[in-house]
Structure formats: structure tokens, C-alpha cells
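Lab meeting, item 3. Inverse folding demo.
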């Protein structure tokens, strides 16, 4: 059990993008280990504060983790009565009523492919966001370096032989940001993300020239115009200009915040060139 109070833990687990259960003593009869309104927070791996310890707390934590694993038919709250002698083998002789309230992980899940300078700055900025961030790379020295730096509790680093290995582990409706050191890998990642057909948003770092080349290659790979236009390149809000890592990171972070606030993907105007504009440009290039 952490020494952190439940009120301190509440801010931490929300920021970390974890699912959690808050257990509240709402009534007692006879002798009981804690008074009414005592609270504790339970996550899959940790507990914060206490409602009395002992077997009572052990049983409450079991029920809370059952809720976290989808038990109790997905109920968001459960009221349990615990006769301390009968249910928990405690000798207090009283009874305790505990309300268990389940709070799922935040809806916003973000995967960032690549641990370069812009991504490092972006992770710092998004560290203040209520989201669950997966930060992925295949370069062991860089991944180890990033893992050793001070990261927000909402960010987890992942090292793979190939960054493509992470795509099958992603949840539906994730925001995916492709920001690697290798254009060929960027293309492979974008194609694999499009093949999933369930990403909330796909952002690709790069210039307008890179956007044209990638969209031409995606067209050659038989992706539809709608699928091609769903790849936002250059990622970030065009209203925020600049080429320094922190300027690009702020632009991307602003677009991510905009997506989450609107609860929909950004408009075509903000996503870069439209398919019609791209097609016309490709025709012009072919004629040269």
C-alpha cells in the first residue's frame, strides 16, 4: 500500500490514464476498523490509503479488481455489506457497508512511434494530458535513455525489434503519431495502421513534399482516396508555424487537444492537401 492519501492518488491515477476503483465506507454498525466516509483507491497493481486493513480490506480489493477485470457484469458501482465476523473473519463484531465505484481508463489513448527530438518534446507536453500514451521505438540505446528520463505517469515506453510489432497491441480508436527516423519505416507503419481500419487519427510528421510522395505511394498500394486523406501529413496545426522541435511539438499537441475536445477528427482543411489537390499535383509532376 502506498503512503499517498486517496485524494493525492486520485490526481495521480487520473493523470496516469489508469482504470481505478474508489472504495468508500458509507456505514458502520457496532465495532468497525474505520469510520464512515473513509476511502481508498485501488488500481490493478496498487492501493492508496486504507479503509481499515486486514481481511476486510483484502476482500474489498479483490472485489475492486474483479470490477477492473470486467466482473460484476460491468457495473460502475457496487454496494457491499461486510459482517466482519462472517465475511471477513475479523473479530470486531460489527458490520461495514462499502461502496465500490469503478472509473475506466480515459478514452484517449495515444501511440507515438519514434523517440526523436520532436517526439521527446511532445511527450513532455502531453504528459499533462489525461490520456494513456505508449511511446515506441526499436533503437535499444535510445529507448533505454528515454526510459531513464523523468516521464509523466501517463507515459510508458516500449522497445521492439520492429516498431511494427506494436500495432497489433494497440486498442481500437487510438490516436497514432508516426515520427520515426526512417521514411521507409514511416510508410510501413502508415500502411499497417490503415490496414487496421480502426484508428481515431493517424498523424505523420513531415513536409508537404513528403505528404505528396507518401500519398502517391499509398495510392499505388491500392488505398482508397478516403483512406489516404485520413493520414494527416504534415501533422499539427498549420496556424502554428516554426521548424524547431518545441514549435512542431506544440503544433501537434494542439491538434491532439482539438481532436479530443471535438470528439472527432480534424477537418480536411487542417489535415493538409485534399485528394483532389494531390491528384492534380501528381498529374502536373508526371507531365514534366
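The presenter then showed the designed sequence:
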Amino acid at each position: 500500500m502506498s503512503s499517498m492519501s486517496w485524494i493525492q492518488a486520485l490526481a495521480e491515477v487520473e493523470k496516469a490514464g489508469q482504470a481505478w476503483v474508489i472504495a468508500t465506507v458509507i456505514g458502520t454498525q457496532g465495532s468497525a476498523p474505520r469510520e464512515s466516509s473513509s476511502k481508498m483507491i485501488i488500481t490493478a497493481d496498487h492501493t492508496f490509503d486504507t479503509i481499515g486493513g486486514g481481511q476486510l480490506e483484502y476482500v474489498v480489493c479483490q472485489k475492486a479488481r474483479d470490477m477492473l477485470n470486467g466482473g460484476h457484469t460491468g457495473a460502475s458501482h457496487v454496494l457491499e455489506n461486510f459482517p466482519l465476523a462472517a465475511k471477513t473473519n475479523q473479530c470486531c463484531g460489527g458490520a461495514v457497508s462499502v461502496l465500490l465505484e469503478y472509473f475506466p481508463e480515459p478514452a484517449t489513448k495515444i501511440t507515438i512511434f519514434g523517440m526523436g527530438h520532436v517526439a521527446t518534446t511532445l511527450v513532455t507536453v502531453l504528459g499533462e494530458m489525461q490520456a494513456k500514451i505508449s511511446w515506441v521505438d526499436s533503437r535499444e540505446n535510445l529507448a533505454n535513455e528515454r526510459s531513464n528520463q523523468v516521464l509523466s505517469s501517463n507515459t510508458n515506453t516500449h522497445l521492439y525489434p520492429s516498431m511494427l510489432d506494436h500495432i497489433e497491441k494497440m486498442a481500437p480508436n487510438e490516436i497514432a503519431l508516426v515520427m520515426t527516423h526512417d521514411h521507409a519505416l514511416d510508410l510501413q507503419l502508415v500502411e499497417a495502421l490503415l490496414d487496421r481500419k480502426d484508428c481515431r487519427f493517424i498523424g505523420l510528421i513531415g513536409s508537404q513534399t513528403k505528404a505528396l510522395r507518401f500519398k502517391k505511394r499509398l495510392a499505388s498500394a491500392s488505398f482508397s482516396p478516403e483512406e489516404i486523406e485520413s493520414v494527416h501529413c504534415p501533422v499539427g496545426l498549420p496556424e502554428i508555424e516554426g521548424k524547431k522541435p518545441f514549435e512542431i511539438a506544440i503544433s501537434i499537441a494542439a491538434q491532439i487537444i482539438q481532436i479530443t475536445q471535438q470528439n472527432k477528427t480534424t477537418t480536411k482543411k487542417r489535415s493538409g492537401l485534399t485528394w483532389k489537390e494531390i491528384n492534380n499535383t501528381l498529374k502536373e509532376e508526371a507531365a514534366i
